[in-house]
Recover the amino acids of this structure.
């Protein structure tokens, strides 16, 4: 009897733990102030609009193999996107960065080195952001107004820093995270996004990870299908502008 009871209690407790874990993940759990920053619009996860417009965003590039294929597929469907590049890679592949810009896409800042921002001081964070912005500006003459922290890192210090610089923290729409970087096949990535699509979403993808060619293929599939359904693919800054208009 006692045994059954303790088993039931263990089951109950693990159930609660599981549910709270899910809730934490669902709310991004990244920071207790997350929802407030969203309200203040210093951090954006989606935009409120009736218009069938969404943003595709690509992280961790530029990559010499994957990024050109992503660009070809965007061009094929006349879709615009935002590329959150790493400063160290932008420096290494300036021609790809130039191509991204010249084809009408937006370039966002995804830090210089993509190291873990935990336990780093303000000077370090600021340098990661400013150094990358300077590289992007030097190569493309685009001045990034969006910063996507590596690993989704958030802290009061980081938010103050970006506020000061008039930079918006570019998060993404949680339910549109297909985890494409985890070796998911193109069809699965595309289906996840097609199934969950709603106006105003910011869709996170990765051109800079080893699975990037599957991601590129997924772009071809999903943009074709959703364009036929009346969706328009715009840069993140354009999506924010659309949201402010309504
Ligand atoms: Zn990243």
């Amino acid at each position: 009897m006692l045994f059954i009871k303790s088993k039931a209690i263990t089951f109950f407790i693990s159930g609660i733990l599981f549910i709270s874990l899910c809730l934490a993940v669902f709310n991004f759990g990244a920071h207790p102030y997350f929802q407030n920053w969203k309200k203040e619009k210093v951090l954006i996860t989606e935009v409120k609009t009736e218009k069938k417009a969404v943003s595709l965003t690509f992280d961790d590039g530029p990559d010499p193999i994957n990024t050109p294929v992503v660009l070809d597929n965007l061009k094929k469907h006349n879709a615009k996107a935002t590329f959150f590049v790493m400063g160290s890679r932008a420096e290494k592949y300036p021609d790809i960065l130039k191509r991204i810009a010249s084809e009408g896409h937006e370039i966002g800042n995804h830090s210089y080195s993509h190291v873990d921002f935990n336990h780093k001081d303000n000077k370090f964070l600021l340098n990661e952001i400013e150094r990358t912005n300077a590289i992007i500006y030097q190569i493309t003459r685009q001045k990034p107004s969006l910063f996507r922290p590596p690993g989704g890192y958030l802290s009061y210090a980081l938010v103050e820093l970006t506020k000061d610089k008039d930079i918006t923290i570019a998060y993404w729409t949680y339910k549109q995270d297909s985890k494409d970087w985890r070796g998911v096949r193109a069809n699965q990535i595309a289906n996840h996004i097609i199934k969950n699509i709603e106006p105003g979403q910011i869709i996170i993808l990765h051109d800079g990870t080893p699975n990037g060619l599957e991601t590129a293929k997924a772009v071809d599939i999903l943009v074709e299908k959703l364009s036929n359904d009346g969706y328009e693919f715009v840069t993140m800054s354009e999506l924010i502008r659309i949201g402010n208009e309504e």
Confidence is low (pLDDT under 50) at residues 16-27. The pocket of zinc ion is lined by residues 59-60, 110, 114, 150 (CB under 6 Å). Strands lie at 43-44, 53-59, 81-85, 106-109, 146-147, 168-170, 202-206, 232-233. The longest helix spans residues 2-26.
